[in-house]
Amino acid sequence: DGPVQYERVGADVTMKCGSMDWDAAVTWTANGTDIDESHLNGSYLILKNVDLSQSGQYSCYEGSSWHLKYQTSLRVGTPPKEPVLMCRSNNYPKGFYCSWHLPTPTYIPNTFNISVIHGTKDMVCEKDAVPKNRCHIKYLQLFSTVKYKVTLTVTNALGKNYTALMFDEFAIVKPDPPESVVAKPVPNNPRRLEVSWQNPSSWPDPESFPLKFFLRYRPLILDQWQHV
């Protein structure tokens, strides 16, 4: 399939026809379609101000014999912008997870590398199979006053970027929402509802770390909420 050539959106791209001389008679195709000779400088292919639609397979053939001399895959994209990183503990006191995404697509492959440091100790962030943009860290000690520092670096063929977070253990604790929430009428009392729920299944130890619940409600015809 030949090499892969990565170029930025808006760049001017020059492709050589392998080892062919500059003044050799050649024909270029993009995804099997002939390219007009106006884009040629001798045997070189010149693409001005490339955009995403010009990604594809480019092939160069010798003169009228149509012997394939060179082939490359052009991938047009952008360097990564600063990634968005979020860390949260939804299963305290077991640990926490971090997840990330890019604010805008790059249209080419990206590699993410995450490092977690607790004080001076490097910690392993185990990648989750699903979703792929998430990993989790196990707490080594509870009630630690030492801050965590998480750095996420994203790299592609056109550049790299990073973002970092620093936080205390307790600052990222956030349970998942309650489960099995049910509201049903109370017999013989049309002005009352009975609401029941369960702890989130992800919360591992509600005995040692009990959760507090807040409920709000309103009739649809009113804008203001009542709180319990």
Automatic annotation (TrEMBL):
Keyword Cell membrane listed: yes
Membrane-protein topology: Lipid-anchor; GPI-anchor
Principal cellular location given in the protein's record: membrane
UniProt domain Fibronectin type-III: residue ranges: 177-228
Ig-like domain sequence ranges: 10-60
Gene Ontology cellular component terms for the protein in this record: ciliary neurotrophic factor receptor complex; CNTFR-CLCF1 complex; external side of plasma membrane
Xref: InterPro entries: FN3_dom, FN3_sf, Hematopoietin_rcpt_L_F3_CS, Ig-like_dom, Ig-like_dom_sf, Ig-like_fold, Ig_sub2, Type-I_Cytokine_Rcpt
Subcellular locations according to the entry: Cell membrane
A biological-process GO annotation: positive regulation of cell population proliferation
GO MF terms, alphabetically ordered: ciliary neurotrophic factor receptor activity; interleukin-11 binding; interleukin-11 receptor activity
Entry keywords, A to Z: Cell membrane, Disulfide bond, Glycoprotein, GPI-anchor, Immunoglobulin domain, Lipoprotein, Membrane, Receptor, Repeat, Signal
Family, per entry: Belongs to the type I cytokine receptor family. Type 3 subfamily.
Protein name (record): Ciliary neurotrophic factor receptor subunit alpha
